[in-house]
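Example complex used in Figure S2.
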Amino acid sequence: MNNKIYKYILIDNSIYINTEQGVIDLFINLYNMKPFSFFGRTTRSEVFNRLPAFIIRGLRVLQFIYEFHKKRLNGSSNRVITSHFFGGVMLELRQGGYKIFNLKKQEVMTVFPKQMPLLEIEERIRTTREAARCSLAPKVIKWSVAERYLTEEYINLKSPLYSFDNREKLCSEVFPILENILLTTEPEVLPFETYTRDKVIHLELLINRLQSTTNETISNVEKVKGFISLLKMRLQEYSRQKEIVLTFSHGDFCEGNILIANQSSRVIDWNTLGSRSFYFDFYHMMFKVGRYENMDQQEIARYREELEAGVELFYTKLRENANFHSLHEVNELNSFAVYRYLFYIELIILKLQFTGFSDDEKITRLMKWIRRIEVFEKVDAESYGQIGKSIAN
Ligand SMILES: Nc1ncnc2c1ncn2[C@@H]1O[C@H](COP(=O)(O)OP(=O)(O)O)[C@@H](O)[C@H]1O
Ligand SMILES: [Mg+2]
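Predicted assembly (393 residues):
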C-alpha cells in the first residue's frame, strides 16, 4: 500500500473519476471501456438516437467529461470517495464497496466495504478464486484480506442483450457458455429425496429466522411460505425421480454478467458461486430474459413455449456433446419440471442468504422473482391459502 491518497468524484450512474487524470486520457479510457454500456445507451431524443453508435458513444463520453471538468473546478458539493488504490475509474457497487479500473494495467480491483468482517472478505476471495477454475471467469491476479481487496483481470468486452423469442441467438451464444460452466468440476449425483428434503429444511429455517419490520414484509413472508408449500406439493408428485445432478453454478447468470464478442465470451461477478441442480443457471438466465412483467396473456403463453422448447434443445445439445458422456446414464436429466421446481427452491435460498441487505429488502427483492414465477406457473397468492390449508389437514 502506498501513502498517497487518491480522490474519486461521483459523476453519474455510480461512476467516479480519479481527479488526477487528464481529460484526453480520460476520453480515450472511457470511450474504449466496452463493459460500460452506460455510454452506449440511447436517449429520449429521436434525432440523437439515429446517429451512428460510435458518435453516440463519443458524444456521451464528452458530455460526461464536461461534467467531470465542472465538478472538479467547483469542488465543495461533490460526493467523493478517497482511496489508497490507484485507477482511472471507480464504480460504486450495489452491495457496498467499489471496483477500481486500471486500464493501463488491464486490472479491476474490488475493494470490500469497510463494515464487512474480515472473515467474510476471506470467504469472498476464496469464492472468486474458486470461480477462476472456470476458464470463462476473470483470472485472479492478487488479493489481501487485511487490505480488503482482490484484483482481477479486466475484460474489455460488451454485455449482450437477448430477447426470449430470438431462440437462435440465445442458444448459439448462451449454450456454449453454460456447457463450459457445467463442466468446470465433475458433476455430483445425489438421491432426489434427500437433496430435496435438505433444501426444503434449509429454506424453512431461513424463513423462520427472518425479522420483518413492516406489515408489507409480514404479508409477503406469508406469501413466500405459501409458495413453498405449493412447491413441496408439486415435488411430491415426482416420487419416481431417483437422482438429481448437481453442478458448478454461477448463481447470478444473466446478460449483465456476460461479456462477449464474436469469438470469445467471458463471465464475471461470481459472488454467488455454488453447487446447484443441473439447470439452475439455465433457468436463471431464461427467467431474466423473460421480462414478462409487462406481457399480455398471449405473449406469456409464447414465452412458456419458448422456455420449454429451449430446455429440451439444451438437453439435446448436451447429449450430443462428448464431454457429457458420463451423464448419459442419468436418464432423469430430462425431468425438466423437477429441475425447475428445484431451481425455485435454490433461488429463494440464495436470495435469503444474501448479505448486505436487511430482511425487508431481501423480501422485496425476492417478491419480484416470486411474481415472475407465479405468472409462469399460472398460480397466484390466492390459491396458496387453499394449498396451505390442504397441507395442514
Ligand atoms: N473483470 C472485469 N472486466 C471488465 N469489467 C468488469 C469486470 N468486473 C466487473 N466489471 C464491470 O463492472 C460492473 C459491475 O461488476 P459486477 O462484478 O458485475 O458487480 P455487481 O454485483 O454490481 O453486478 C460489471 O457490470 C462490468 O461492467
Ligand atoms: Mg454484475
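Residues 219 and 280 are 28 Å apart (CA to CA). The pocket of magnesium ion (ligand 2) is lined by residues 256-257, 269 (CB under 6 Å).
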